[in-house]
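Usage

Read records sequentially. Each one opens with the input sequence:
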Amino acid sequence: MATIFSPSAILSSSTNATTPKPPLPPPPTKPHLTIPPSKPSINIATTLTATALATAILATSPTSLADATYKLYYGTAASAANYGGYGGNSDKKASAEYTYDVPAGWKEKAVSKIQKGTNGTDSEFFNPKKKSEKEYLTFLGGFPKLAPKDVILNNLALSDVDLQDLIASAENVKSEETKDEKGQVYYVYEIDGAGAHSLISVTCAKNKLYAHFVNAPTPEWNRDQEALRHIHESFKTVG
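and closes with the structure output:
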């Protein structure tokens, strides 16, 4: 028996075979990533320059005298006519009339004949990193003994302008009389001025008046007070 195919069935099958598939849903979108701003690049040259500058500042900053070592200075108290030694004798230790300690690293200032002849300066040392931090000694002939303390200080100021200014601006001036182990008399002065501090030790020997000065600006005095007092107390005459 022959099979009869329905045209509608064929059309239906053909239609089903060619029907397109529904579109696929779009893939989920990825979240937006925020890119942080890039860090500024480090300039190597700038860094090296800053490091060098910091090193230079540290190298030139005044250093404390807390751990200072000292050398002993021998002073001859030579007159301007005999400047440089007695009769060509360059051995200061052999002809020394006084001694005092000098911190290692301090520089000696050359004293001219004019200074010797006008104010009697015989020797001077200073801190090269702060030149106003210094010690020096003056002497005057014709003094067999000490005059009263106030007279001595005023006489010293007559030939020392800096000392005059310091005394004029002083908040406090102390003075006392002391004796060393040999019984030699010393006048000791401490002047607390406006912006500076001074320690002075004065004595007479060999018909001369010796005055040893230790001066420092207030910041250096506050920092180095112990060492500066040591320098001050180290002064003594020889013989």
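Summary fields computed downstream for this record:
- The mean pLDDT is 81.
- The two ends are 161 Å apart (CA to CA).
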